[in-house]
Amino acid sequence: FKELKKLKMISLLKFGICVALAGFVCCFSELTDNIHDGESAYNRYVLEDFVPLSKSHLWKLMMSFYDRNGPQSWTSGGVPNFVTSNSYIANSYAKILQGFFSDCKLNTAAMKLDESEPLYIIELGAGQGKFSFLLLSALEQMQRTLAFPSQKIVYVMTDFTNSNFDAWQRHPALKPFFDSGRLDAAIFNAVDDSKIVLHKSGAVLSAGSLKNPVVVIANYLFDTLYHDYFQVSGGSLLEGLVSAGSETNEESDPLNPEIIERMDNHFKYEPTELAHYKSEEGDEAHFQWMLTWYNDHFGGFGAGNEVDASFLVPVGALRALRRLSSLSKKRALVITADKGNGNVDSFRGLMDPGLGLHGSFSMMVNYHAMALWTTSQNGFCLVDHHEHSDLLANVFLLGDTQAAVEQSIENCSDNAECRVTRSAKMNAKIAERKSSFLTNYPHLLEAYTDRILSFGPSDYDKVFSFHREEPNEHVELITVVALMRLTHWDPDMFAIYSNFIVDRVMSANEFLKADVAEGLKKIWKNFFLTEHNVDIISEIGRILVQVQRFSEAEVYYRRFVELRPESAIAMVNLGICLFHMGDAQTAAELFQAALHIEPDYSLASEWLKIANNPADSEDAEMSARNEL
To answer: Which of 120, 315, 535, 568 has the lowest CB atom count within 10 Å?
Structure first.
């Protein structure tokens, strides 16, 4: 009886599961029917119908985000910033430039530099300007060993938004470089503009106008320029089309950057040809060379050998490099760091393109495709293949492209033998370019290997992600000083360690105190003021007071008061510093000003009493160190 009852219960359970599954299949079938009919099961606002990814409304949303937010796009923490705006990466780029300049002076160099002519370094998407400042500072420190006259180097900051451009003109850290002529600026759309009009000098950089090769720097930029998307499926090349949309019922402002956070984009794929790009200002053959390589590599050489793959083409980045290299007759050194892919195996499988959201959005840069495009033009490339890295730093070198288009690309159609031969020729060219680079640019290769491959910007960021919290009580001050040296005394890292240093520097030996004080000067040289890091100035002053360098501390406290005139703490800190320098009267005035701002500020009251009665201030020095 018990077994019979058990069987009945199992039967009822199975029946219930079947009913539930049937209902699910019915609902799922209805849902998919609606989708196939072009109707969504929910209300989706369509911003535009299906178009190629590079022509999508998505890019207008991105430009609107940066235009409306200006420098706050970076300082608010939304857009990645530290990994490409620190002292380490700036010094690494300076070393790469030094290597390039040295190679151009070799007797065997194919690319020569004219030291009587300006050499322009053009940074695309300079944003808030912090990296520009750090690289200019690094080049200034290396000027005696740079292998090119530093006074002939003109650094050009560019962006497409007036808000960033205007902020550069007002920034105190950039002013000395602007005044010396070593820095200029321009509004420049990297994808569409063909010339650059410099704001300070009035010079116009146009096609063929530069005597020296142009240097292009692009950090966290190419991932935000136009991309196209392709798939290789069953041996055939497909183009990805996108319909941009929003999860809401209606969008009153189609350029509202907030749409990015609620995007609902649909994709579909249609067959296309290897000669997909028809209007690329003479660059069509190089795009075809790139697409042909992918089609042969993944499409196989006959039935059964195909591998499905999906890959982006950074068409916006390639168009930008084409226009910029034309300024110097197709000669350019490009240094770029971005999230991306350098290994072709990353593209296996069929999938829709992913968007990284961070206030705006970005897409993975296909550096492998950029290397193919560069190789097609008889150029050189150094591509970081560390796919696990959040940031890949790469170097591309473009020279004369005339030889690259002498032979056409074979039209093999479905002829497997032809495709085998075509693929072998293309891979042979890639190998030849690599070998030639190793021979002709040894210093550039050494610098790239040392500062990027061995321990690069992404490695630096990863290592110090472990140290972005204040050290525990068992860590010694000398260890933190060693870490600061490794960061080239980076102000952002100092902000994390400043309280730790204040607590321990007073008891350090005189040699370590002197080391810290010298390090603070380097921090100040690397300091780029934003609305979020003003307190670093006061922190430098606090430490200088602890090591009894009051006159040096005064300079920083006065700067801090200028920036924070309504800060009672700023007034008190400057007052304490002046008191120890023997100016009790001015100190008392500052303490009184602090009490005017904050009447209940007890520390200001205590110090006001001390300043008015200097004879009773035996413990003032210790109090200053404890209370600052």
So the answer is: 535
